[in-house]
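Ops channel
N.P.: pipeline sanity check, posting one input/output pair.
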């Protein structure tokens, strides 16, 4: 299948190297919670090809039969947090099957080294919490990071693509004492969203004018606002390749992610790319005795949250740490 060959080629090369209303003005439509059931898909039986559903989605793009983006989500440690391996794959997938934009991202700036491709992000006034530090007051989603604010706070996300975006997603936690935030595009009229209510994770979708450039989110200072993810893309056939990672993380960080939050965020995922193992290599050899069982269990957290998605495991990069120096160097091999 041409689509299959293109995907495998992209992976090898990279390793080496809703229903909201459309608007014609620069503002966002009224939001709605995207809580529809995931697309039905039967898992491949033993001996079958577990990637077949994903290849089918790509084949539909190839045949110009698709109407929506195909969503790929990569999750892992620092090699997934840094948009390098993922950027190379994104470039190749989008060159081959069409570009639909950047997709979902961690909220704000999740770490000091954050440098996402295709977009620029700023933030002010937020408090960050990471799943690497243990369970937090707000359940974690796929990013493993939450951003909270009780007073005035602001985030901006600017697209560097000539085509900009026309679709927005904000993933937030509804809280009994939740506050509100305003969403605007390119300085246009804002829509205010209340996060007050029974506790749950909500993915709110908005439509914006085609070619929109900058998304701005501002809290109103009337209660706690907790964000789990956000993003922009174009609602066209093509590929979205989204990456999430935590520096220094091991696969057990997935145990700290909330099942309902994951299911809300991953409901459109066609492929999950899972990359852990580098940080585990520096632990005690005794820790590896049951690693396979623990790895399967933890990856199962993702698979259960997105039963419609294929799952691809990527082996950890080579790593070397100099004696007495807490630095490491990595390289990818084909």
């Amino acid at each position: 299948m041409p689509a299959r060959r293109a995907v495998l080629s992209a992976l090898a090369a990279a390793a080496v190297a809703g229903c909201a209303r459309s608007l014609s003005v620069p503002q966002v439509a009224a939001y709605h919670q995207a809580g529809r059931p995931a697309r039905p898909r039967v898992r491949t039986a033993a001996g079958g090809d577990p990637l077949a559903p994903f290849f089918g989605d790509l084949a539909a793009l190839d045949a110009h039969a698709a109407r929506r983006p195909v969503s790929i989500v990569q999750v892992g440690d620092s090699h997934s947090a840094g948009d390098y391996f993922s950027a190379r794959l994104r470039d190749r997938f989008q060159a081959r099957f069409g570009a639909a934009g950047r997709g979902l991202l961690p909220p704000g700036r999740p770490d000091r080294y954050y440098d996402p491709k295709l977009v620029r992000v700023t933030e002010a006034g937020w408090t960050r919490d990471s799943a690497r530090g243990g369970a937090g007051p707000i359940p974690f989603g796929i990013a493993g990071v939450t951003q909270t604010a009780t007073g005035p706070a602001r985030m901006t996300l600017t697209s560097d693509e000539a085509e900009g975006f026309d679709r927005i997603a904000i993933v937030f936690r509804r809280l009994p004492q939740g506050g509100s935030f305003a969403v605007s595009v390119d300085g246009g009229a804002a829509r205010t969203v209340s996060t007050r209510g029974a506790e749950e994770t909500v993915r709110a979708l908005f439509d914006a004018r085609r070619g929109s450039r900058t998304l701005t989110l501002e809290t109103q200072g009337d209660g706690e606002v907790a964000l789990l993810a956000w993003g922009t893309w174009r609602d066209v056939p093509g590929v979205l390749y989204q990456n999430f990672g935590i520096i220094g993380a091991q696969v057990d960080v997935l145990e700290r992610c909330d099942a309902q939050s994951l299911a809300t965020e991953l409901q459109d995922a066609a492929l999950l790319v899972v990359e852990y193992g580098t940080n585990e290599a520096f632990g005690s050899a005794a820790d590896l005795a049951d690693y396979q069982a623990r790895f399967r269990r933890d990856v199962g957290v993702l698979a259960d949250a997105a039963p419609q998605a294929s799952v691809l495991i990527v082996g950890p990069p080579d790593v070397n740490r100099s004696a007495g120096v807490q630095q490491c160097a990595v390289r990818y091999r084909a």
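N.P.: looks fine end to end. The radius of gyration is 19 Å.
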